[in-house]
Amino acid sequence: EIVLTQSPATLSLSPGQRAIVSCRASQSIGTFLAWYQQKPGQAPRLLIYDASNRATGIPARFSGSGSGTDFTLSISSLEPEDFAVYYCQERTNWPLTFGGGTRVEIK
Amino acid sequence: EVQLLESGGDMVQPGGSLRLSCAASGFNFEDYAMNWVRQAPGKGLEWVSSISGYGDKSAYADSVKGRFTISRDNSKNALYLQMSSVRADDTAMYYCARDQRGYNRPSDHWGQGTLVTVSS
């Protein structure tokens, strides 16, 4: 089973700042990585798939990069609605795994 | 519009059984793999189980293997999760999620979840 390690666990930033979230896989997963955003009381929402492709309707301030074992989610300039928890998920084969999550909170 | 509506969540005693359902609409259901993902209170997301579009392939997390069974009825556009021998650590919000078409695809639509509480 592939283990995904996200860092940091919490990111305290102000609106307008840049957020960078890391996800490291225990073995190479190519670019089979997705990022999701979850707000309190809501279901997760797909942001990025195949490591760097934005899902439908996702603003351009969200970007993903990486391949193999190291991946990054970047939010270029935080908007008030971006403060949420972010999860990575590997999509190689069953069983699937999620990272532990990164909370982006208002400083 | 794609819609996924979970139901069946309830309070159940340890060792008991429960069946969750997910009603799908707005897309050709049999063309898509489906998943159950859960989230314990205050915790992160945990993949539970997946099933192929035709229902001929499925997989489970180790934590539920042998206790939970995923199934689907493509004639009814419905996904199910039969839970048995439930434990306290099965307490969670359970989401159904649709994968994009193809192999190794992410989950692009999620339901709002149904809450399962295991308690005596």
Radius of gyration of chain B, taken over Cα atoms and rounded to an integer in Å: 13 Å
Spans where pLDDT lies below 50 across 5 or more residues of chain A? none
Helix content class of chain B: under 10%
- Share of residues in strands of chain A: over 45%
Radius of gyration of chain A: 13 Å
Categorize the overall geometry of chain A.
globular
Kindly report how far apart the N and C termini of chain B lie: 40 Å
The helix-and-strand class of chain B reads: mainly beta
Secondary-structure-based class of chain A equals mainly beta
Estimate the mean pLDDT confidence of chain B. 97
Largest interface in this structure: A-B, 27 and 23 residues
Indicate the mean pLDDT of chain A: 97
Largest sheet of chain A: 7 strands, mixed
SS field, number of helical segments of chain B: 0
Q: Indicate the percent of residues in helices of chain A.
A: under 10%
Query: Which residues of chain B sit in consecutive blocks of at least 5 with pLDDT less than 50?
Result: none
Major beta sheet summary of chain B = 7 strands, mixed
> How much beta of chain B, percentage-wise?
over 45%
What is the chains' assembly state? Answer: heterodimer
Element layout with pairings:
The complex is a heterodimer of chains A (107) and B (120).
Chain A: E1 4-7, E2 10-13, E3 19-25, E4 33-38, E5 45-49, E6 53-54, E7 62-67, E8 70-75, E9 85-90, E10 97-98, E11 102-106
Parallel strand pairs in A: 2-11
Antiparallel strand pairs in A: 1-3, 3-8, 4-5, 4-9, 5-6, 7-8, 9-10, 9-11
Chain B: E1 3-7, E2 11-12, E3 18-25, E4 34-39, E5 45-51, E6 58-60, E7 68-73, E8 78-83, E9 92-99, E10 107-110, E11 114-118
Parallel strand pairs in B: 2-11
Antiparallel strand pairs in B: 1-3, 3-8, 4-5, 4-9, 5-6, 7-8, 9-10, 9-11
Fold and architecture overview:
With 107 residues, chain A is mainly beta. Chain A has strands spanning 4-7, 10-13, 19-25, 33-38, 45-49, 53-54, 62-67, 70-75, 85-90, 97-98, 102-106. In chain A, strands 2, 4, 5, 6, 9, 10 and 11 form a seven-stranded mixed beta sheet that branches. In chain A, a hairpin with a 3-residue loop joins β5 (45-49) and β6 (53-54). Chain B is built from no helices and eleven strands. Chain B has strands spanning 3-7, 11-12, 18-25, 34-39, 45-51, 58-60, 68-73, 78-83, 92-99, 107-110, 114-118. In chain B, strands 2, 4, 5, 6, 9, 10 and 11 form a seven-stranded mixed beta sheet that branches. A four-stranded antiparallel beta sheet of chain B has the order 1-3-8-7, with no helix packed on it. In chain B, a hairpin with a 7-residue loop joins β9 and β10 (107-110).
